[in-house]
Amino acid sequence: MKRVTLLTTVMLFVSLIVMGQKKPTIMILPSDHWCDMRYFMTTYDNQGTKVKIPDYQKAFIEDTEIGPVISKIGQVLTDMGYSLKDAEQEIKSINTKTAEDNVTISKTSGASLVESPLDILKRRIKCDILIQISWDMSRSSDGHSTTFTLEAFDSYTNKRIATSTGTTQGVGSIAELLASAVKQNAKPFDKQMDKWYADQRKNGREISLTVRCWDSWENDLETEYGGEELTDCIQSWLQKNCVNGTFNLSDGTESFAQFEQVRIPLEDEKGKAMDARAFATLLRKYLSKTPYNITAKVMQRGLGEAILILGEK
Q1: I need a surface site. Which of 18, 32, 57, 141 has the fewest CB within 10 A?
Q2: More confident residue, 270 or 247
Q3: Which residues are 26's β-sheet partners?
């Protein structure tokens, strides 16, 4: 009996250690600078403004270096415990033109909601961290000298969370030289990402949430339910459902409320990764019940931004 108890205790201790060492999921792409220098850029219309963005699909098809580079660097990071998601395979399945034409018009302001191809990619293959790589190579009689820059961004907020640069010399393929350089400089980079992820697990993932009203709706955010205006009721719900009750009402009118720095759990009750749309859907379901009985529509831009429009779907 004592042996069974001891074994159970040891297994529990080991599982806790493993859980504590859990690493975030990552996706690796070439940086905007790298794509621009190699003319792998395209433009799309974002609410009347021409935006220049990387053409990842063209880069993966035409460039002979980027695939092996991402594979080698991905191997270095997976050996450190990170879970790598394959961007190249997912990009092949995304019809960029269709995504760019998928525009929703708001009845309230006439504004369009457009997801960039990168936002769509991040939503399709949810990851915690987007890593961008760029490099420059010079040749000499002693071989190659390669300088790289590795930057990590929060996929939900696009905030930079880690940076690493380095230079390596030697003979070999670009992928091998870069992998060697990244490995030599990996510890500080890994430490920065670990610090960020520990904060996420403790304080929640950061998103932004916008609540709006269709102009066809007879009510607005100042309508009272049980003696409280709807905006206050929504804030009470956020207080209960955000991690540590953390959120910020940065702007608001009778038909509009902008919540920023909204901290949500990393996972839902079923262990599935929580994003802005999933969190906004929970609010939508809450408002659909008595005493509110409000019909609403959830729209999403990337992983970290959701718009809840009240009054109809």
Answers
A1: 141
A2: 247
A3: 84, 129
The full DSSP string for 132-156 is EEEEEEEEETTEEEEEEEEEEEETT
Whole-angstrom distance, CA of residue 66 vs CA of residue 70: 6
Residue-level pLDDT at 173: 84
According to DSSP, residue 245 is labeled G
**Which 3 state secondary structure label does DSSP give 83?**
strand
DSSP state of 244: G
Record the pTM.
0.82
Res. 10 pLDDT band, cuts 50 70 90:
very low
- Residue 313 makes CB contacts below 8 A (sequence gap 6+) with 295, 296, 297
Q: How many residues does the chain have?
A: 313
Phi, psi (degrees; rounded to nearest 5) at 161: -120, -15
Within 8 A by CB and 6+ apart from 213, the residues are: 108, 219, 220, 221, 255, 256, 309, 310, 311
Residue 102 has pLDDT above 60, yes or no: no
Is 306 within 8 Å of 210 (Cβ atoms)?
A: yes
Q: Tokens 């009470």 map to which residue?
A: 236
The residues that bridge with 306 in the sheet, in sequence order, are 209, 300
Burial code (b: 16+ CB inside 10 Å, e: under 16) for 10-34 equals eeeeeeeeeeeeebbebbbbbbbeb
Distance CA 179, CA 173 (A): 10
Region 216-237 average pLDDT: 96
Q: Report in angstroms the alpha-carbon separations of 138 from 39, 72, 144.
A: 20, 20, 6
User: In Å, how far are 131, 176, 190, 268 from 183, measured between CA atoms?
Assistant: 15, 11, 10, 34
Comparing 69 with 108, the larger pLDDT belongs to 69
C-alpha 216: how far from its chain's center?
33
Q: Tell whether the model's pLDDT for residue 16 goes beyond 60.
A: no
pLDDT above 60 for 7 = no
C-beta atoms surrounding 257 within 10 Å: 21
